[in-house]
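Suppose you are handed a protein chain with no further information: no name, no annotation, nothing but its sequence. What can you learn? This example shows the usual starting point.
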Amino acid sequence: MSLSAREVAVGLLSRRDHSVKELRQKLAQRSFAANEIDEAIAHCEHYGWLNDARVAEMLLRHGISKGHGLSRIRQDCQRKGISASLTDQATESLEFDWYEHAREIATRKFGVLGELTKAKDPKEHAKRMRYLQYRGFDFDQIRYALNPED
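A reasonable first move is to predict its three-dimensional structure. Written in structure tokens, the prediction is:
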């Protein structure tokens, strides 16, 4: 006996939250017809089991806990099919200090005993900037994080 698209969708959502795009891809990989997938997604949205806003908030909290900046978190949300407006809503509701977060990450990586040490030379400073940029922080946040006098 094979499971219906609705049963598979509920099973997937019982393990973790998925975005609509992710769930659609997972059901399509299992060779369900497009109309069955649409019905399963509508069913899950109706009962509140599938909610992109909740996924955006989860990705935001998860990204912060991993030490990522807002740009990187936005990319992760976009990759999972979360709209920019939902990502913005989740960010605004959080009221998070990205500058202090960048400084905390820089101190954790390049600091000694909880204090950020000054870069020895421009090459080291550029390395630190690239690290924070890769983590998803913008230039102003990086400059704030790497200047311990501020």
